[in-house]
Amino acid sequence: MSRTALGLLIVAASLVPRAVVAEGGGGVTIEGFYGLERPPSTSFSAAVSGTTSSPDLFSSSLQMAGGDILVDLGGLELGAIVDTTFGSNTASQTAIGALGGLALGTGSVRLDLLAEAGGHRYGNLASNPEIVTASSTSEWLFYVGLRPGISVKLGGGPLSVGLWGFARWDVNSKDVPVTVGSAGSAGSYKLGGSTIGATLRLGFTL
Where would one find the signal peptide in this protein (predicted)? Predict the structure, then answer.
């Protein structure tokens, strides 16, 4: 995650008034996460099929890192998220979105059932070794998604660990004209699709 994105998360957390956290709520939680995201597929079922049939899930997936801010309003949960992928010889993906849904559970265990929506950036298109030149180096698409997760507080303190699972769908798509191969043939690179993934999460509740 870039320093700018991390700075935005910290500033956003500082602007959340304590008064918006309803009595009995879980407060404001700042999290970092790391995991894997599958490359975009034509549909959710294709993404799942590609995951289950991959002989080497780690090397065929994109590594992901990011952070989120979650505000528990006594069962109703709102927040914001930013994350980015990285890997060799592939276009990067960055997502910035809003979160909303339910926070369920008692004691130290919490179940998050969230929806998300925001902007999905495809960047560094020329990183693909098959692409010689591209008419655009990055494009933003609008996406929606689902994000279930579970977390456990450590020793009843402010620190928590857990897991996120997620699925995202780009609402629109974009065809970027490119030049491919050693012969310099004209072609197009289609951006957009469905992605799934999972991450480990580490949080601190204010």
Answer: 1-22
Phi-psi domain of 108 (left: phi exceeds 0; alpha: psi -120 through 50; beta: other): alpha
pLDDT tens for 43-88 read 667 666 666 566 666 677 889 999 999 999 989 999 999 999 986 6
CA distance 166 to 72: 20
Query: Three-state SS across 11-80?
Result: HHHHHCCHHHCCCCCCEEEEEEEEEEECCCECCHHHHHHHHHHCCCCCCCCEEEEEEEEEEEECCEEEEE
The residue type at 131: I
State pTM to two decimals: 0.77
For residue 132, what is the domain's CATH number? 2.40.160.20
Residue-range definition of the domain harbouring residue 132: 3-205
Q: For residues 39 and 62, is the Cβ–Cβ distance under 8 A?
A: yes
Sign of CA dihedral 112, 62, 130, 56: negative
